[in-house]
Amino acid sequence: MKENLTEQEIRNELNRLAPFHHKVELSYNLSTHIPELSRRPVEYTRVNNLVKHAFPTLIEICGGSLQEKRVLDVACNCGGFSVEAAKLNSEYVLGIDVVDHYIEQANFIKRVLSLEQVEFKVMDINSVDESTVGMFDVTFCFGILYHLEDPIPVMKRLSSVTKSIMLVDTDVMATLFGRFGALQRFFRKPLWLMNFPAVSSTESKDATTSLWRSKQGSVQFTPNESAVVDLLKFIGFSKVEKIKPNQKGLEKRYYTGRRATFLAIRS
To answer: pLDDT at position 186, please?
Structure first.
């Protein structure tokens, strides 16, 4: 059902819910990015950056649009990529996240943009299976792989509800060692770096992405590129390619090898 919010109502909600991790254009020339309330520059670039970098390859594989495709957006945050999937005429988009606040932000954006084919749910990733969410043609795994304590079983679970394509964007272990060939050969092996991130709160600099961190603490594993490729093949995708950062103006981390995007296709 279409709901027309006034400009002042939108402004009030933007200020109440800010900061947002994704910049999404709204009605009345407003957007979710409010510079004075933003915590990090990435909140302005995140959606536009990845859409420019990775979506052309995805759209080409899908025949020019996401028409008639069901899309799962894992760890959707405030829903910026779900919105982009809807713009590409997806039949249905489900965004899930474990943080209530992010889903509240996402549902606010859905209301403003009247996105009837998009649904957002508070859901733990370990609850995902065909009985709870159904099956999807395309799954987005953006900024989640390196946060997982148990990456292999979780990715298996996501693969089990993905019929065709998984698009993975993740931090990776940088492996640019120039002329040191021995180190380059070593890092071609699949490796995972253990990390213990700090507990987060609404006052944290990275609160727009880290509110899921509990008081009990957490452990997470950052893979190198070989580990991502091998993992995606292991969970059932026969073709896996890294999308090269050929576009100009991307975030620096794509060019330095600290961030990478992978397209996995099931045969």
So the answer is: 61
Type of residue at 81: F
The reported pLDDT for the residue numbered 1 is: 46
Who has greater pLDDT, 78 or 190?
Answer: 78
The phi-psi region of residue 114 (left if phi > 0; otherwise alpha if psi is between -120 and 50; otherwise beta) is: left
Distance CA 161, CA 146 (A): 20
The whole-angstrom separation of Cα 205 and Cα 38 is 9
The string of pLDDT tens digits covering residues 255-266 is: 998 999 999 999
Question: Tokens 């933003």 correspond to what residue?
Answer: 38
Cβ-proximal residues to 258 (8 Å cutoff; 6+ apart), any chain: 171, 172, 174
Q: Cβ of 171: how many Cβ atoms within 10 Å? A: 18
- Domains located in the chain, CATH noted: 54-265 (3.40.50.150)
3-state helix, strand, coil in the chain (%, to 5): 40, 20, 40
Structure tokens at 171: 């931090």
Cβ-count burial of 104 within 10 angstroms (0-12 exposed, 13-18 middle, 19+ buried)?
A: middle
Residues in the chain: 267
Query: Which tens digit of pLDDT belongs to each residue from 33-77?
Result: 999 999 899 999 999 999 999 999 999 999 999 999 999 999 999
| Cα distance between the two ends of the chain | 38
CA 259, CA 264: separation in Å to the nearest integer? 16
